[in-house]
Amino acid sequence: MGDTLRLAVGVMGNAASMLLFSAPILTFYRITRKKSTEEFSCVPYIIALLNCLLYTWYGLPVVSYRWENLPVVTINGLGILFEFSFIVIYFWFTSARGKIKVAITVIPVILVFCITAAISAFALHDHHHRKIFVGSVALVASVAMYGSPLVVVKKVIMTQSVEYMPFYLSFFSFLASSFWMAYGLLSHDLFLASPNLVGSPLGFLQLILYCKYRKRVIMEEPEKWDLEKNEEKSKQLQLVINDSTNDKS
After folding, report:
1. Cα–Cα distance between 120 and 56 in angstroms, integer?
2. CA angle in degrees (0–180, nearest 5) for 89-93-99
3. Confidence band (pLDDT; 50, 70, 90) for 244?
4. C-alpha dihedral sign at 76, 71, 198, 20
5. Is 47 within 8 Å of 145 (Cβ atoms)?
6. I want to staple 52 with a disulfide (CB 3.0 to 4.6 A). Which of 76, 187, 200, 225 is the partner?
């Protein structure tokens, strides 16, 4: 009964995480359409990529006992594809300075994963110590992933606008972290449960802020082209009025 419940929670966690990973599609559709990354940050997606890489490795039989954590492998493997795609799109449309920032952040992430995988595979020779080592690194990455939206939360509070904090991303983050917290507790695996003890409250905080500021928007400054267009229309209208006045005279 316990294994069945754990598997059911794992399946629900997979579903919620798939929605979480796919939620930024709307954001990146906007970036592609406007050909600009605007005020969106790439940091959450880079940290999420590291998190997915580490937990995929954690769930594989190299670290875990056989396929005891198969749901962890499947969803984080899918997460790698999503996060990598988002980073590539962001890199393509960001400024030259933004490209440098992305590269500077991505390279250490890849190095951390490669070093962690190499040490666990070749320096440690039993599953117990491998799980402790990889789980500890993944725990730090996961807490960082759930904590990265705090940058956006600060922006929301300062601007009193949720324009750059998509609702579905916050909602599915709360949902996924709640399911994986339950999965980790049922599995008696603190490396799966602990980061979600942080992620679930942070997701709930984002939802509260969204409900509070969702009706407030940032007033955008008019484009120069719009100002020139309006000025031209005003001149045309003034000419029509003058002509009408002269005719009456």
Report:
1. 13
2. 90
3. low
4. positive
5. yes
6. 76
pLDDT band at 108 (very low <50, low <70, confident <90, very high): very high
Query: Which value, to the nearest 10 degrees, does the dihedral of the CA atoms of residues 175, 177, 182, 185 take?
Result: -170
Tell me how far apart the alpha carbons of residues 193 and 6 are, in angstroms, rounded to a whole number: 13
Q: Quick one: what percent of the chain has pLDDT higher than 70?
A: 82
Dihedral angle computed from the Cα positions of residues 230, 232, 237 and 238, in that order, rounded to the nearest 10 degrees:
120
Whether residue 216 contacts residue 161, with contact meaning beta carbons closer than 8 Å, is answered with yes
Question: Could you give the dihedral angle defined by the CA atoms of residues 207, 52, 45 and 123, in that order, rounded to the nearest 10 degrees?
Answer: 130
56: amino acid identity, one letter: T
Residues in CB range of 31: below 8 A, 6 or more apart:
37, 38, 40, 89, 90, 93
Closest CA to 146 of 179, 122, 170: 170
Contact at 8 Å (CB) between 6 and 66?
no
Q: How far apart are CA 204 and CA 226, in angstroms?
A: 40
Q: Which residues contact 209 (CB under 8 A, 6 or more apart)?
A: 153, 156, 157, 162, 165
Which CA distances in Å does 112 have to 51, 53, 109, 188?
Answer: 11, 10, 5, 26
Distance CA 74, CA 54 (A): 13
* H-helix segments, 60-149: 70-93, 96-118, 127-147
pTM assigned to the model = 0.74
